[in-house]
Amino acid sequence: MNITDGILGHYWILLSWAAFAVLFVLALFRAPWRHLSAADEDGKAGARFNTWLGFIVALMLLWSMKAGVRPGFALHLLGGTVFTLAFGPWLAFIGLCLVLAGVAANGAISWEYFAVNALVMGALPVFVSNAVLRFSERFLPRQIFVYIFVDAFFGAGLAVLAVGLCSSLLLCAASPYGSEFLFGEYLPVTLLVAFSEAWLSGMMITLFVVYRPQWVASFKDSLYLRSTGNK
Predict the structure, then answer these.
(1) pTM (2 d.p.)
(2) How far apart are the first and last CA of the chain?
(3) What is the pLDDT of residue 62?
(4) Are β-strands 67-70 and 73-75 bridged in parallel, bridged antiparallel, or unpaired?
(5) Which among 118, 116, 54 has a CA at the least distance from the CA of 86?
(6) SS in 3 state form for 199-222?
């Protein structure tokens, strides 16, 4: 889903860098850095920071496995929903930016297109995933199955669909590719990626909340296990 070289004009590149700079600075100030340095429930200091770095390295490998619909169009899994549920939106966005930086350093994308990809593949899935989480916390029962199937499974699938739709609209407005190709061939393929992302995210969150609940900041035993049925 990353946007590669030569597709967007200079105006779009400059606009994306301006928006990214504002959002990244805001994330740096609002991210709960103390959460990473605090000891976890087992009393291990720095364990959360190591887990955060582990997420970044794992996603670098995940983003390296991609398929192309046509030259300039790469599709791959994101992992943004799991990152958001585990560390919150601000740390997740910063982490995804570091993932993208690693991909750019490896030569998969150019640094010129770093900002637009960070907004589309970083900020957007984090925003959608966090919005689904807040919606379920407010309107749905606090149950572990709601957390897994709505926040993780449905949230991840919706995040990928949002990225695919945003990419299609952006490329339709700013690139020579026509809407017939984008909405007839490119966007439908994202449905397959969305299902894969949803399945993988649901599976990972299930494993985390069972074996390593301290890795998932948005999951609280007192809310989803001991108070089943409460809103």
Answers:
(1) 0.89
(2) 36
(3) 86
(4) antiparallel
(5) 54
(6) HHHHHHHHHHHHHCHHHCCCCCHH
